[in-house]
Design a protein that fits this description.
Layout (H helix, E strand, L loop, with lengths): L18 H7 L7 H13 L2 H9 L11
Length: 67
């Protein structure tokens, strides 16, 4: 956790403790931060037409669906 001066006391909500879901449901992460970031970048790069519509204001919240 990195505390920042402009939001004192707010840092706690950004930290995730996944111990309960691991313990009670047996969940384990399948992505590292790095692989998740790469997948996110790839998602946006493969949807340049959508990104352009978001940036120019013509996108009107249409759902793209899953990966």
């Amino acid at each position: 956790i990195s505390h920042v001066k402009d939001r004192p006391g707010h840092d706690r909500r950004y930290a995730i403790d996944a111990s309960k879901i691991k313990r009670e449901l047996g969940w384990r992460q399948t992505e590292t931060f790095e692989s998740g970031l790469a997948a996110t970048v790839d998602w946006y790069l493969s949807r340049q037409d959508w990104v352009s519509r978001v940036l120019d204001g013509s996108y009107r919240m249409e759902r793209l669906g899953g990966a």
